[in-house]
Amino acid sequence: MVLSDLNTYRQIIGCLMKKPLLLTEFQDIQAMDFDIKIPRYIFIIIHNMFKSGAMQLTPLEVDIEMENHEAAAVIYKSERGLDFLKESYDVSKLENFEYYYKRLKKLSLLRALKKNNYDISAYHKEEFDSLREEEEANQRFEDSSIDEILMTIESKYNQIKADFINGGKHSGNAAAGLNELVLDLMKNPEIGPSLCGRFFSTACRGARLGKYYLRSAASGTGKTRLAVFDACKIAFPIHYSHKSCTFVMDKDKDGNIKPAEKTLIITTEMGKDEIQTIVLAYLSGVNESHILTGHYDIGEMDRVFYASQIVEKYQEYFYIEEISDPNLTNVESTIKRYATIEGVQYVFYDYIFSSPSLVAQFADSKLREDVVLMMLSNQLKQLAKDYNIFISSSTQVNANAMLEEGFKNESCIRGSRAIVDKADMGCIISRVDDKEYETLQGRLANAARTGVITDNGEKPTHVIDIYKMRRGQYKNVRIWCKIDLGMGARKDLYMTRMDNEPMNENEIIDLFHDSSEEMFNWREEYVKPEELIRKETYEF
Fold first, then answer.
1. Over the stretch 352-374, which tens digit does the pLDDT of each residue have?
2. Which is nearest to 227 in space by CA: 259, 205, 252, 197?
3. Given the DSSP bridges, would you call strands 390-396 and 425-431 parallel, antiparallel or unpaired?
């Protein structure tokens, strides 16, 4: 099998002429997927004409448009590009488009893997040892999905990694490497990038690689938004500060500009556009309702457009993936793909629930629903460990269990408390009602008088109950915070024990308190909306 297929290219090009709207459904088709110049040039023309409003094209229309691109037109004419267009239009069938689309992407993937020196011999060789071997490779290619191809390649890599890790030494000696471990922790403490909320980040020691965090909340509490806010804080070093009334660069405790980290949000309920507006709200400090309605206060529209430019600037660090019907297979393959191909290290999976596909996956095994959910949760932990990435997920809680006041633990989780067995951190997020706040006020006032806390009278909107913290000192604590879910503004007010007794904030080892912000003149790099070219076009 060769890694190029002219017939596939004809089918794709012909179908796109007949129905350019396919480019909205199959958005990941790129010019690089065509390794032959003529179909690649033609794809670029069709793509750009569609972006300009074309809903149906003929070979002659594409041919005329090609004349506007002199360098490409020379090669196009010399290789009889019009004949290729006519043939493509005649032989293509819209009902077969999806088959050829998958074939196109698989061929493109194998070329990319080969270019980066990955072993693709299971699917392609320059010269096979026998006709049977070649036929088997061709059949394997036909039968495999993109995810399955990647998993095959990855398994070879993991085997090599297993053979050579620790220099090939597998010692059970408890003392082996102990001094090196201590020295390494001195240089590189087990602390990850800061999450939203200084007390919460301190309790978790940030988003630590290799760890799996599980947050639970009732529907409408804001668990998805809180996950998106955390993802934004990790991925983007720039955001609007209401304190400074301008955009700022985040700095760490040493005064260095915080680096952008590759981050992925997997959404199972919200669409990509819904996540995008939450991101814009967080970065711009503009309430999402203003973005959705288009009714802005003075200066807000410019902030939102600048936020969109921030996202574009850091697009290689922030990814959104929709999985509307998750199961163990597609969740695992998605995370593996982003971890290995894109180098993503921080993953936010929203959220663990009994999807039809997940239940159907184990229908024959007759496993209980709670066991299936536990398996998905355990899988997330294993992926975090195997790929040394941070994964945060969330679950729903039982409404009845949340009616009681006071500290909440894993017994409130819908499904089974076994879901949290493998989690490194587990917490419950709930809203603070007037009654619960009233029971707290007396303790706060007394703690403020004795200097235990600084109480400025701000009323918390949410409380986070941390019931599990593996290898951490802050377990069975409550973090009271003020959160604006519309724009992502958050302030951790104080931390208490399970009984609501405030903890001395001066004794809390605040790992992120010394971080600061650096103001800059963002308008110097801001491009006004009217100056933007909205059409996304390819260049030859």
1. 988 888 888 877 766 777 788 88
2. 197
3. unpaired
pLDDT for res 425 = 96
Tokens of 309: 């430019």
Give the pLDDT confidence score for residue 300 in this predicted structure.
94
- Tokens read off for 483: 């959160």
The β-bridge partners of 319 are 264
pLDDT tens by residue, 101-139: 999 999 999 998 888 888 888 898 888 888 888 888 889
The closest alpha carbon to 474, from 492, 449, 450, 462, belongs to 492
Comparing CA positions, the residue from 37, 88, 23, 93 lying closest to residue 62 is 88
β-pair partners for 346: 263, 390
* Short-list 71, 21, 72, CA closest to 47: 21
Residue 265 CA to residue 286 CA, distance in Å, equals 21
Structure-token pair, residue 100: 């050829």
Which residue ranges form the domains of the chain, and what is each CATH number? 6-117 (1.10.860.10), 186-524 (3.40.50.300)
State the Cα–Cα distance between residues 26 and 460, nearest whole angstrom.
45
Cα–Cα distance list, 66 to 191, 327, 351 (Å): 55, 45, 47
pLDDT at 186: 62
- Residue 10 corresponds to which amino acid? R
Q: How many CA atoms lie within 13 A of 99 on its CB side?
A: 11
User: Based on C-alpha coordinates, what's the Rg of the chain?
Assistant: 27
DSSP assignment of 411-431, as one string?
A: GGBSS-GGGGTT-SEEEEEEE
CA distance 285 to 306: 11
pLDDT at 15: 96
pLDDT at 1: 54
The token pair that represents 488 in the structure block: 């992502």
Question: What is the 3-class SS of 342-378, one letter each residue?
Answer: HCCCEEEEECCCCCHHHHHHCCCCCCCHHHHHHHHHH
Q: Which of 68, 60, 23, 25 is nearest to 43 (CA)?
A: 23
Q: Are 505 and 453 in contact (CB under 8 A)?
A: yes
Instruction: Tell me the pairing of strands 425-431 and 462-469.
Output: antiparallel
- Residues 84 and 7: their CA atoms lie apart, in Å, by 11
Which residues does the chain have with pLDDT short of 70? 1, 158-179, 181-189, 365-366, 415-416, 513-515, 531-540
Q: Are 198 and 510 in contact (CB under 8 A)?
A: yes
- Tally: H helices and E strands in the chain: 19, 12
* pTM recorded for the entire structure: 0.71
Distance CA(94)–CA(57), nearest Å, equals 14
CB 264 within 8 A of CB 348: yes
Exposure on the CB side of residue 456, measured as CA atoms within 13 A: 8
Backbone angles phi, psi at 99, to 5 degrees: -60, -50
Spatial separation of the C-alpha atoms in residues 316 and 20, rounded to whole Å = 27
Find the angle CA(153)-CA(156)-CA(159) to the nearest 5 degrees: 150
